[in-house]
């Protein structure tokens, strides 16, 4: 993975909640132009498909996107981001579960308009990275990753439903 | 009845803490109104016309005495001393303060209750037959399945932000008392080819602005696959249901747009990926949950002796005899009957029950019905397991608090939403219409002569009062700022479900009792022997009703 060093020399641009820890983001968000050489930038699905579907790129899905074009390449992708245009649009939760069920093991990132209160549901659906631009909300999200000590359902974080785990 | 273990208890306790945190952040301005909205809705908290409204979950309508006493306490302590039974078998209180709600939820959690997912765009309380487990026409008790669905749907991480609310109902008997055809998913327990019961699965039913009868998407589903199949349906809906227009966001619109076949194919292909996974129900889990619902410790009665006592009581108290005839139902267990406690006495807003009545019901169900009772989607209460020889004592106890109204299943047993007196979405007040009709038809002989009749009233298109499936439906509409009422005829929630047809132009509130009386006169003039209102209507059609009502000049 390429480390980004922006013009001001600081490698830290945006913080990110990844695997429960607040870390510096090493990816640039999707942009209209395709990335420059050596730039670690997340591609839009159209850019990714236009670039002949490179197996080692990071790609962002929108809520309504179809997973099919991605499925064959999943094994090699380092990062798939799902963009939430609104925190009430729950399609991204199902996309995440489908991706994990299809065997994706890379970074699965939720970005866009999210609430800290959704952090645990996002994690349970398979997201291991959550983006919050506001540092206070990022910290709140981190505190809310384990509001519930157990869930009834099997999900990405714990495939076994509670009825297979009850002591 | 299902009992929480440590896992269940911890989950509702953690939910209380979570909501306390969310409320505090909202009150100090950290959470915006629009952000708090879906969070509070998923804890049953609405902000209504006059005050907030809190909807408390009563899973599939089952309550025990200590829970009733806690509800009575909550209405006294935080509210105005009464509660309302909703058409989803839940309990609503109309006057709590937002800042008190975390404390109310904590009180509820102390008796294994909560308000999780009683509102919002998520999976709501699963409803069923109020006579589940005791009805003589039952194939299998649906409540264990409702509990399995409750656990699966509670805080489901994938389905908390659906396009719209989502309602599931389960029926396990010959007669459908759960209105499964008007739910997003309707499940009917049916015998399978190999002798084991399974489910007939309906999807895409619903009331509201566009009422639709559910379509069968699977004639038979093996029971162990229930949860993975529900998960597949929800996933298809979550991904493809419309989100651009809230009036087109229910699953019924998706099923119509895709067509039943294509929708079914999408569900089946999603299910192929999920079936036989960890969500498949092990036999032991089905048995474990079913164990909570095995009948109470019925006494080994001499049915003839019970019947003789009841007969003697009836002979000495004709009013009691009438109540037994109207408000009690056959039971699977010899010597027992199930009893409907009508919350529809004239002058009582349909479904309202006071704190004193709740306390009294707690005492009565402890004394005569193994300490439990059920709420019904008709907004009544059922005491399901009463010895025939105890019926008189129960009736006396009910009479003392005004709960012995002998009208279960008759015209004045009106289903009615809170309407414009409470609800901010209302076009019209529904409760005064119900009261005026009840007052007009107080004569019991006339009521019984009319036979079984379902009259349902909603204050707006959202149809919380299920007006589409009433034999007579009344809908409040707004015409240039004035309240009017539209009447429909011929709806039914039975297995031969149908949606009512609009009679014609709407009426003023003060004319409603006359309109209903005219409609009933048409029925009485035309009916053949033993023919119910619905049967007569299906035979003679709408025209005679239209002719008579509009000739009278009631229309506007
Ligand atoms: S039907 Fe309309 S008026 Fe009645 S409770 Fe529902 S939303 Fe309110």
Automatic annotation (TrEMBL), chain B:
GO molecular function terms listed in the Swiss-Prot or TrEMBL record: 4 iron, 4 sulfur cluster binding; heme binding; metal ion binding; sulfite reductase (NADPH) activity
Residue ranges annotated for the Nitrite/sulphite reductase 4Fe-4S domain, each copy included: 119-272, 413-549
Keyword terms of this UniProt record: 4Fe-4S, Heme, Iron, Iron-sulfur, Metal-binding, Oxidoreductase
UniProt-listed Enzyme Commission number(s): 1.8.1.2
Keyword Iron belongs to the record: yes
One family name in Pfam for this protein: NIR_SIR
Nitrite/Sulfite reductase ferredoxin-like domain location: 53-110, 332-401
InterPro entries: NIR_SIR_4Fe-4S (IPR051329), NiRdtase/SiRdtase_haem-b_fer (IPR005117), Nit/Sulf_reduc_fer-like_dom_sf (IPR036136), NO2/SO3_Rdtase_4Fe4S_dom (IPR006067), NO2/SO3_Rdtase_4Fe4S_sf (IPR045854)
Matches recorded under PANTHER family: BLR3264 PROTEIN (PTHR32439:SF9), FERREDOXIN--NITRITE REDUCTASE, CHLOROPLASTIC (PTHR32439)
Name of the protein: Sulfite reductase [NADPH] hemoprotein beta-component
Organism name: Pseudohaliea rubra DSM 19751
């Amino acid at each position: 993975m390429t480390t980004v060093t922006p013009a001001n020399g600081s490698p830290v641009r945006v913080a990110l909640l990844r695997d429960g820890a607040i870390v510096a983001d090493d990816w640039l968000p999707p942009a209209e132009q395709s990335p420059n050489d050596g730039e670690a930038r997340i591609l839009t699905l159209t850019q990714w498909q236009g670039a002949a579907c490179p197996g080692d790129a990071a790609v962002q899905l929108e809520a309504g996107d179809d997973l099919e074009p991605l499925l064959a390449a999943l094994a090699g992708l380092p990062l798939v981001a799902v963009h939430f245009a609104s925190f009430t649009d729950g399609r991204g939760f199902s996309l995440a579960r489908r991706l994990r069920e299809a065997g994706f093991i890379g970074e699965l990132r939720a970005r866009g308009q999210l609430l800290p209160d959704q952090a645990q549901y996002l994690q349970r659906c398979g997201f291991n990275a959550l983006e919050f631009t506001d540092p206070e909300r990022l910290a709140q999200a981190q505190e809310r990753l384990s509001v519930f000590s157990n869930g009834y359902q099997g999900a990405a974080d714990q495939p076994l439903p509670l009825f297979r785990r009850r002591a | 009845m299902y009992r929480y273990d440590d896992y269940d208890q911890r989950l509702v306790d953690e939910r209380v803490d979570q909501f306390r945190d969310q409320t505090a952040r909202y009150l100090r301005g950290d959470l915006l109104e629009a952000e708090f909205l879906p969070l509070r809705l998923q804890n049953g908290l609405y902000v209504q016309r006059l005050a907030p409204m809190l909807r408390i979950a009563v899973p599939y309508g089952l309550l025990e005495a200590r829970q009733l006493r806690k509800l009575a306490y909550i209405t006294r302590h935080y509210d105005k001393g009464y509660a309302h039974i909703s058409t989803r078998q839940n309990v609503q209180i109309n006057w709590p303060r937002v800042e008190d709600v975390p404390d109310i939820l904590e009180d509820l959690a102390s008796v294994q209750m909560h308000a999780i997912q009683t509102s919002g765009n998520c999976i709501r309380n699963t409803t069923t037959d109020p006579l589940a487990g005791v009805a003589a026409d039952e194939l299998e008790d649906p409540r264990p399945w409702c509990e399995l669905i409750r656990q699966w749907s509670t805080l489901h991480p994938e389905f908390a932000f659906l396009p719209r609310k989502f309602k599931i109902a389960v029926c396990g008997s010959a007669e459908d008392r759960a209105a499964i055809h008007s739910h997003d998913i309707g499940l009917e327990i049916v015998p399978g080819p190999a002798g084991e019961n399974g489910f007939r699965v309906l999807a895409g039913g619903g009331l509201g602005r566009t009422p639709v009868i559910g379509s069968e998407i699977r004639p038979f589903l093996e029971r162990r696959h229930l949860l993975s199949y529900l998960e597949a349906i929800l996933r298809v809906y979550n991904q493809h249901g419309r989100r651009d227009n809230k009036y087109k966001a229910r699953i019924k619109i998706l099923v119509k747009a895709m067509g039943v076949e294509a929708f079914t194919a999408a569900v089946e292909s999603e299910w192929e990926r999920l079936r036989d996974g960890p969500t498949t129900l092990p036999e032991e889990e089905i048995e474990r949950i079913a164990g909570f619902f095995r009948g109470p410790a019925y006494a080994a009665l001499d049915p003839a002796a019970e019947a003789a006592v009841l007969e003697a009581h009836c002979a000495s108290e004709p009013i009691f005899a009438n109540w037994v005839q109207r408000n009690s139902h056959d039971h699977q267990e010899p010597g027992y009957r199930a009893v409907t406690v009508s919350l529809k006495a004239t002058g009582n807003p349909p479904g309202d029950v006071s704190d004193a009545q709740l306390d009294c019901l707690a005492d009565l169900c402890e004394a005569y019905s193994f300490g439990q009772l059920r709420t019904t989607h008709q907004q009544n209460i059922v005491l399901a397991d009463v010895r025939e020889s105890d019926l008189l004592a129960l009736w006396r106890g009910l009479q003392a608090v005004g709960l012995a109204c002998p009208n279960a299943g008759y015209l004045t047993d009106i289903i009615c939403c809170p309407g414009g007196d409470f609800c901010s979405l209302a076009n019209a007040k529904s409760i005064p219409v119900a009261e005026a009709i009840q007052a007009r038809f107080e004569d019991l002989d006339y009521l019984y002569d009319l036979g079984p009749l379902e009259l349902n009233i909603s204050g707006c298109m959202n149809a919380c009062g299920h007006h589409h499936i009433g034999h007579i439906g009344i809908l409040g509409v707004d015409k240039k700022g004035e309240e009017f009422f539209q009447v429909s005829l011929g709806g039914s929630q039975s297995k031969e479900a149908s949606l009512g047809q609009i009679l014609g132009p709407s009426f003023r509130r003060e004319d409603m009792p006359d309109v209903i009386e005219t409609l009933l006169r048409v029925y009485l003039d035309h009916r053949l022997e033993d023919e119910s209102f619905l049967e007569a209507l299906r035979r003679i059609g709408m025209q005679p009703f239209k002719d008579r009502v509009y000739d009278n000049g009631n229309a506007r």
